[in-house]
Amino acid sequence: MTAEHKLKDRKILIAGASSGMGRATACAAAAAGADLILLGRDAARLADVAREAEALGANALTMQADAADAAALAVALAPHAEALATVDTMINSVGVNIVNRAFSELTPDSWAGMIDINLNAAFNLSQSMVPLFRARGGGLLVNISSTAARKPDPSGAAYQATKAGVMAMTHAIMEEEWQNGIRATVLLPGMTETPLLEKRPSPPTAEMRAKALQPEDIAEACMFVLGLPSRAHVSELTIQPSVR
Asked: Among 63, 130, 67, 72, which Cα is nearest to 94's?
């Protein structure tokens, strides 16, 4: 099978699809022959990504929703129950960081906001899709976390805690659901050139950006995981810049 048709007949839900890793993954999956459901908060940017995917030959349905809000997510998904029942893969690239990220700068509100977007969104999305995967006899769930989940770095206490939570939750889902044909993978990217870099207390220099991974690199890692047969499971995949 050619690279252009590697994911033919696959139906993939990508959350956080409007920018960065999610957008790059949507384009890579479309180019590989998959049809897409694109979920995010920005309707205009989602429409742009859908047009890109359609230009690559994919069918692309967009859903505007805040995945951190369980009730709002359920309302957004409900009218598309038939389409969602055919989804065989979910990729969650929802994530955010804040400028005032040092532990001493965190407040109850900023801490709760990080938990909502980085951890609760992953939980809400996974809870929405796992029952559908069970019903269809299997599925693949991919959560994009961070190398910050595994090692201390300057990304901040809230970011590291939430990304570690995403990693632990993904492993727990696999432990509980493998007998239902469900595979769960967590990706741990290092520094990547995405809008998240703009949230650093000190903007990265041009030299630092030149060394960073690109969103397309993470998309390629996703394509590797998606391309494996159902007998093979990648529990965790770390991808870092080769020059640091």
From this structure: 67
Q: pLDDT per residue over 145-188, tens digit each? A: 999 999 989 999 999 999 999 999 999 999 999 999 999 999 99
| Backbone φ, ψ for residue 26 (5° rounding) | -60, -45
pLDDT means per 10 residues, the chain with 244 residues, are 75 96 97 97 96 97 97 96 97 95 97 97 98 98 97 93 98 98 97 79 81 94 97 97 88
Q: Count other C-beta atoms under 10 Å from residue 11's C-beta.
A: 18
Q: Which of 78, 70, 159 is nearest to 121 (CA)?
A: 70
In angstroms and rounded to an integer, the radius of gyration of the C-alpha atoms of the chain is 17
Q: Tokens representing 191? A: 């520094």
Secondary structure of the chain as H, E, C letters: CCHHHCCCCCEEEEECCCCHHHHHHHHHHHHCCCEEEEEECCHHHHHHHHHHHHHCCCCEEEEECCCCCHHHHHHHHHHHHHHHCCCCEEEECCCCCCCCCCHHHCCHHHHHHHHHHHHHHHHHHHHHHHHHHHHHCCEEEEEECCHHHCCCCCCCHHHHHHHHHHHHHHHHHHHHHHHHCEEEEEEEECCECCHHHHHCCCCCCHHHHHHCECHHHHHHHHHHHHHCCCCCCCCEEEECCCCC
